[in-house]
Specification:
heterotetramer, A: alpha/beta, Aspartate Aminotransferase, domain 1, Aspartate Aminotransferase, domain 2, seven-stranded mixed sheet, four-stranded antiparallel sheet, 14 helices, 38% helix, B: alpha+beta, Sufe protein. Chain: A, four-stranded mixed sheet
């Protein structure tokens, strides 16, 4: 992804844009709802809901098989969503776009259809200590069953991946698969994934690579072709889209010789009692009735984000995260876990408040109408490496602004005076 | 989109009285079998080549009116053409099915009647079945083989 | 399931009820849309759409982790959907209800977490020739990889499962797993699943059983406890629910010792670099962000169907399918594939029209505003046993009525005079 | 639902000055470790039994104010009770967390202050952590073992 261009810093008007998001209109105890949990799931603009309604209200039918018009149109629109997503991410062709239910399924697909079928004793899979469980447990589980080695890149004191350690871990050439998160959901760190991929290829030209883009695509302009990874995973509910849909974006040739994962209808071309002919990708990997309405919604989410401009989204968050991080660091008793420099981070900000357990902080902030997440954020290995059991996390998105800061700081102050001796 | 765009009289004629429909071909050089199990279409196409030209083309199988009629019209359009020329015509037909104006409308003969099918996306692959089988047969011939079998999925037209 | 009670035959007014379904309000070429493809996907009532909107518009947040109120409420509602579905199906407890993206995933879950981990050479899995690919290909694929034997119960000339043959196939006691469809999506046949399960248990008391309920639950009162199967799969988009969600209903104890299938967030309680503690069922099997809005929608679909009464739904369809089957059988040149007696069948009616290819028939009917499905209906083994490449299928649901019959018959008549010599 | 319902003064007192919080217990009979990794709660509970009575109960660990305060209040409520009686009290507390009126409000001592927590579903498991650890410790003792470790998921309260 590229940093926002300095000339022509596109911007948007947050106050106007907030009106697009129905849940942001509601009040809690007479206060404006301050939503700082978009890293868990983003709000959904009306336009995305309208796109799904259009399907349900005028085109409700199954796809890929109908000879009647509403089904033909629905099928065309479902396939357009694939093309739209490919374009949104700079993927060379829609043939590499497989719709899944979320990014977790996308990663598991690769774990089952590639890693479990190819890695064994003597091989290694390299991931990192800062992964979300979705990009860690599938590899761990596969390693258990298939006897390959799981290696993890540690995190430095600056909350970045330790690239020297990575180089060492790659040195023996045994790493056949690299799985790395693009942006950490806990630290906000933007990882140098293109560099890591290149480094891995230098150690083993046949290495296959997967990037977990769940926290990157909502916030940064992403160009998967430039990253040159084999697989890239996304999840719609974090990028203004609906629940129930995600995608695996793959190099089409990579899918060509992969056996299917889920099997059933639509993913085969022929079934005899004694043999099956798999369909071509991406259909080979989409068994059963897909999330149709959700694909309409995801299409609209790509439109929504592109209309704002991902450069502008990044520019807005870049400024905002700087403000938030600085303010939190200036608050007595607050420790921020994550890079300080907004160039190196996205909008997920983890922090601790002295003497206040994250649970208590979350409850206190809820009393202020402020929604933050507390806990391990599905990143236990990282929590261990940070030496904490849980953190509080405020995470920003395009509808957040500086007016969301004061309620957060007020809540923290109140929690401190309430709980801390 | 009306039924008349899809089922022109000329198409129905080919469907009702197909040309060059036969289960066998004497002296065949190549036999290809194409199927689209999703539609339940099956097509056997046989060619005989003489002096680099299509000396005979016959088809057989099961399928909807569009696929059967298109194969019938195809056999007439490619008769006696040299292999390269026939491939070029097949490409012209394919592009027509994707909405282009045909370059060689005259050479396609009754094949141009299928232009309206382009507006019925799910039927495009039916109209292409015979032409794609032909292309495969010629390529199989050129590769030196004598038989080939292809199964289609929903979206591919062999391109 | 029980046949509708004779005393008090509940009924409903189809004309009124149709107003609940937006897509049924639309016209095609100035004609009322006649939707006869509910076996592929049903229409969705407004109430289901409203339930999803409620989530997106007032409670948009992730579930299972939030300490703030909208997330707590959303979590509670997500879990209520589980309880509601358990009640709808007579499942003993919500702990056995795992939400998936469709029934295909539900069946694959069992294929990966049970069958693939337990069956091997010397074992057999019994299924039937009339299965949808979703309940066939996963077993075939597992058999390929793990070397157990796949046996299939054939279909009789009356379009029913051959129970004598089933008994023979079970006789050697090697069948460790039985997978059978409750209602055929092609023939409409209602299979005697309870009897088959008992028969399988007599041959091997430890047999584990799965019923594919995709075509049963929308149409018949189903009581999974009475069936006494280990696993029962459903898919929401066929039962007035949204796309993007299905469920596996399992005996809770059966899930207890099953390893997970998809892995990632929410399905573990602890991850260390050297070990993982799986969460309890059903959460162990729900990796990643679940289909939240879709669960709201499925809940509303259960409410909608229960308000009508599944006995009434069955009574309505029982009468209607009798009328349709009789009328089709009385039409010259039409052959119906499936039981004649409405007691033995549900509303999916496959048929052939002499001299008219199903594709042409479908296109012609589309010209009459009638939506039917043509093709192999993801049941290639059955097609082969019927000796056809494809059939036409008209399938009925609660919003269909006798006024949908004439347009179907008119279209068939026109197709015959148009295509048949 | 106000913060005051959740964080009563009595609860905050236990949080700020916990009773029977200690990393060790001389002559301990059972040590259990309970954790709820989803919240990041960890609890070590140690008991010493004399003549069938709880001679000493100490806890240690990390957790939110509710879990720490509830464990503190628990140690006072069960002190010197016989094992069966303590289990019964634990069950009373558990039912209170599920919305029931406590049968033994007097015996729960400061434990009744946690009644309001029942209205905060995500915090119920925090309040239960110490009590469930106690129950486990007693059951472990009765089974003849000396240590046990339990990890909770999101929805279970050990019931
Ligand atoms: C009997 C049967 N089983 C399974 C399925 C697969 O359902 P889904 O595509 O929702 O997974 C279907 C529907 O297509 C079906 O009719
Ligand atoms: C970095 C990262 N990867 C993966 C996931 C999993 O996403 P989902 O739950 O949509 O599968 C998340 C979100 O929870 C995430 O933040």
């Amino acid at each position: 992804m590229s940093e926002p261009r300095d000339e022509d810093p596109m911007t948007f008007d947050v106050a106007t844009l907030r009106k697009d998001f129905p849940t942001l209109q509601r009040e809690v105890d007479g206060r404006r709802l301050i939503y700082l949990d978009s890293a868990a799931s983003s709000q959904t603009p009306q336009r995305v809901l309208d796109a799904m309604d259009e399907y349900y209200e005028t085109l409700r039918s199954n796809v890929e098989r109908g000879v009647y018009r509403i089904s033909e149109v629905a099928t065309g629109r479902y396939e357009q969503a694939r093309t739209r997503l490919a374009r949104f991410l700079g993927a060379p062709s829609p043939e590499g776009v497989v719709f899944t239910k979320n990014v977790t399924e996308a990663i598991n697909l690769v774990a089952y259809s590639w890693v479990r079928r190819r890695l064994g004793p003597g091989d290694a899979l390299l991931t990192t200590e800062m992964e979300h469980h979705a990009n860690f447990v599938p590899w761990w589980h596969a390693a258990q069953d298939h006897g390959f080695e799981l290696r993890t890149i540690p995190v430095t004191e600056d909350f970045e991946l330790d690239l020297d350690a990575a180089r060492d871990l790659l040195a023996d050439g045994k790493v056949r698969f690299l799985a790395v998160g693009h942006v950490s959901n806990v630290l906000g760190t933007i990882n140098p994934v293109a560099d890591l991929i290149e480094m891995a290829r230098q150690a083993n030209p046949d290495v296959v690579t997967l990037v977990d883009g769940a926290q990157a695509v909502p916030h940064l302009p992403v160009d998967v072709a430039a990253l040159d990874c084999d697989f890239y995973g996304i999840t719609a509910h974090k990028l203004c889209g609906p629940t129930g849909i995600g995608a695996l974006i793959a190099k089409p040739e990579r899918l060509e010789d992969m056996p299917p994962f889920l099997t059933g209808g639509s993913m085969i071309v022929d079934v005899q009692l004694d043999g099956v002919t798999w369909n071509h990708p991406p259909h080979r990997f989409e068994a059963g009735t897909p999330p149709i309405a959700e694909a309409f919604g995801l299409h609209a989410a790509c439109d929504y984000l592109d209309d704002l401009g991902m450069d502008a989204v990044r520019a807005h968050e870049h400024a905002l995260v700087g403000t938030f991080v600085d303010a939190l660091r200036d608050t007595e008793g607050v420790t921020v876990y994550g890079p300080v420099d907004p160039d190196r981070r996205s909008g997920a900000i983890s922090f601790a408040v002295d003497g206040v357990h994250p649970h208590d902080l979350g409850a206190m902030l809820d009393g202020h109408g402020v929604c933050i997440r507390v806990g391990h954020h599905c990143a236990k290995p990282l929590m261990r490496s940070l030496g904490v059991n849980a953190t509080a996390r405020a995470s920003l998105y395009l509808y957040n602004d500086t007016d969301d800061l004061a309620p957060l700081l007020d809540g923290i102050a109140e929690a401190r005076s309430f709980f801390a001796r | 989109m009306s039924m008349e765009d899809l089922y022109q009289e000329i198409i129905l004629d080919h469907y009702r009285k197909p040309h060059n429909r036969a289960p066998e071909l004497e002296g065949e050089d190549v036999h290809v079998h194409h199927s689209n199990p999703l539609c339940g279409d099956e097509m056997d196409l046989r060619i005989r080549v003489a002096d680099g030209n299509l000396d005979a083309v016959v088809f057989d199988g099961e399928g909807c009116s569009i696929s059967q009629a298109s194969a019938s019209a195809m056999t007439l359009a490619v008769a006696e053409r040299d292999l390269k020329d026939a491939l070029d015509l097949a490409e012209d037909f394919r592009l027509m099915m994707h909405g282009d104006e045909p370059r060689r409308a005259d050479d396609l003969l009754d094949g141009v009647a299928f232009q309206g099918v382009a507006r019925f996306p799910v039927r495009v692959k039916c109209a292409l079945l015979g032409w794609m089988a032909l292309r495969d047969a010629i390529e199989t011939y050129e590769s030196g083989a004598t038989a080939h079998s292809v199964t289609y999925d929903d979206d591919k037209d062999g391109s």
